[in-house]
TrEMBL record:
Its main location: nucleus. Keywords: Nucleus. GO terms for cellular component: nucleolus. The gene is Nop16. The lineage of its organism: Eukaryota, Metazoa, Chordata, Craniata, Vertebrata. This is Nucleolar protein 16.
Length: 145
């Protein structure tokens, strides 16, 4: 979005990127140092002297660097289908994973270990929701008795 706002449609891509301090060609942006022979001695030339370009819009690079330095949000969630599957299995079979594996709703033919792993993933992603769900199951059992 920063590039889009600073873009000048009357200029070429190379000119726009050069004004923002960005490189059009990454191979030219970071050149490989070349060795020159000067009076019998090897001297490294990094290519910095040639063609220093003026950056007219440095705020674009600064904003992009700031945005990149922000911590990343963890937006890991489970699918609604997996949540419903795990809740159904716990509600009908409790902790009996072998029974869960034989259930007709086990469409993907998960083994008992795979089902246990899915339940543990659900517990780790939604610990509060899991505790409330187990508490509601215990409450239903007490109401039935």
């Amino acid at each position: 979005s920063h590039i889009r706002h600073a873009w000048d449609p009357t200029k070429s891509v190379a000119q726009n990127l050069a004004e923002m301090g960005l490189a059009e060609n990454p191979n030219k942006a970071v050149p490989i140092p070349k060795k020159l022979l000067v009076s019998g001695m090897e001297v490294e030339n990094d290519g910095q002297e040639q063609g220093k370009k003026i950056v007219r819009k440095p705020y674009v690079v600064n904003e992009m660097e700031y945005e990149a330095s922000l911590p990343e949000k963890k937006s890991n969630t489970l699918s609604r289908d997996l949540i419903d599957y795990v809740r159904y299995m716990i509600q009908n079979h409790g902790e009996n994973y072998k029974e869960m594996a034989r259930d007709e709703k086990n469409y993907y033919q998960d083994t008992p270990k795979q089902i246990k792993r899915k339940i543990n993933v659900y517990k780790n992603f939604y610990p509060e929701e899991y505790k409330d769900f187990i508490a509601s199951l215990k409450q239903e059992k007490m109401d039935v008795q």
